[in-house]
Amino acid sequence: MKKLLTIILLIFYSSVGFSENLETSAKQAYLIDVLSGKVLFEKNKEQKISPASITKIMTTIVAFDLIKRGELSLNEKFKVSKKAWKMSSDGYSSMFVMPNDKVSVENLLRGIIVVSGNDSCVVLAEGIAGTESEFVFLMNNMAKKIGMENTNFANSSGLYDGNNYSTVEDIAKMSSYLINNFPELYKIYAEKKFTWDRTGGAPITQGNRNPLLYKNIGSDGLKTGHLENSGYSLAGTIKRGDRRLISVISGTSSKNERSSESVKLLSYGSNRFDLIKIAKNNDKFKVKTWNIKPQILNAELEKDFYITIPTRRLNKLKIEIETEGPLTKVVKKGDVVSKINIYFDNELIDSKNLIASYDTKKENFFIRFVNSISYFIWG
Predict the structure, then answer these.
(1) Alpha carbons 263 and 243: distance in angstroms, whole number
(2) Active-site choice (56, 223, 264, 277)
(3) What is the CATH number of domain 26-252?
(4) Cβ(117)–Cβ(95) below 8 Å
(5) Helix, strand, or coil here: 355?
(6) DSSP 363
(7) Residue 358: pLDDT above 90?
(8) Is residue 56 annotated as part of the catalytic site, yes or no?
(9) Which of 50, 116, 259, 270 is catalytic?
(10) Band of pLDDT at residue 117, cut at 50, 70 and 90
(11) Which CATH code fits 3-13+278-378?
């Protein structure tokens, strides 16, 4: 028979007040608590949108991945083609590269991330893959790897193309992947300005277009976008302590609206929900043994994990160790020995394996014999 042992854990959580149910004027919206993976709000999450300059997140992911694998260097320089140079003369956002100039990958990345330069996207894409269309192939392969099931990229910059589409849900996946896999390079997203010391002209300083960076809310990224057919969009994030929230909105009518609606979503996530950390090691994770040394086995989770629950509802959280009875076989460190069940408001919301913290051994013959006699007499 299974036995359940209710335990009280030392839990770390963040909590800030309470807010009413959320409404947003954005046509599409998505909000996620990254560590727990809990979706806190969604609106038309799978509705296809033009990602506009948010596309540039994927452009940087492809480059970051190559840098991480040692196939690309920040110091490497790429030649500026006429196609790339023409972006600025056509009126698109630019870092203002000059034709035939050679620009470092590091400067191009800042031109893409901070300045939202379409010209820098083309230079980087052509430098990495030979042509922008070949680079787009890399972008779509990466999208599949990330699990972006409703996304297709048609260019590196986000200029309007009917085949360049995504969803707010997929953009959140992409943003989370960027932050989790390239933490050092991601820091560029927090830079508020970029000075491009260009060849043949005076240095140009431009500010980051992400309005969240200029608000005291703990933001360190990500990216804005705008196209006539889809309105103003913004993939935003805040980080407070270990906790990170990511919001994605699209379909607002102005820069101010996309900023205020993003702040509204991120504040909602911070204020209305608590992030609960259940640590890998806890002295309550113990499993009894029979004829095994030690008599009480210390167990642990495979890794720390997190739960998001409505704020001030910690008393509704219950964690139980499930066991079939005493452990009767020798186990090695890392073997599964039991599991915990996590309940919120008496509803099972998750289960996690408990593993042995160390190797166990059989008791000696005399102890096993005494235990057997004792069990025969007393049961």
Answers:
(1) 16
(2) 56
(3) 3.40.710.10
(4) yes
(5) strand
(6) P
(7) no
(8) yes
(9) 116
(10) very high
(11) 2.60.410.10
User: What would the 3-class secondary structure string for 16-65 be?
Assistant: CCCCCCCCCCCCEEEEEECCCCEEEEEECCCCCECCHHHHHHHHHHHHHH
- 53 catalytic per annotation: yes
The percent of residues in the chain predicted with pLDDT above 90, rounded, is: 68
Count the Cβ atoms, other than its own, within 10 Å of residue 335: 15
pTM: 0.88
Mean pLDDT of 263-274: 96
Token output for 335: 């073997």
Selected catalytic residue, list 36, 50, 53, 120: 53
Cross-strand pairs, 297 = 287
Q: What is the DSSP string of 151-172?
A: -B--SSS----TT-BB-HHHHH
- Tokens standing for 266? 């991120």
Q: How do the domains of the chain map onto residue ranges?
A: 3-13+278-378, 26-252
Place of tokens 């049961």: 379
102 carries an active-site annotation: no
* Strands, E assignment, the chain: 3-7, 12-14, 28-33, 38-43, 77-79, 102-104, 193-196, 204-207, 219-227, 231-240, 243-252, 273-278, 286-288, 292-293, 296-301, 305-310, 317-323, 336-344, 347-356, 361-362
Does the structure show a pLDDT above 70 at 7? no
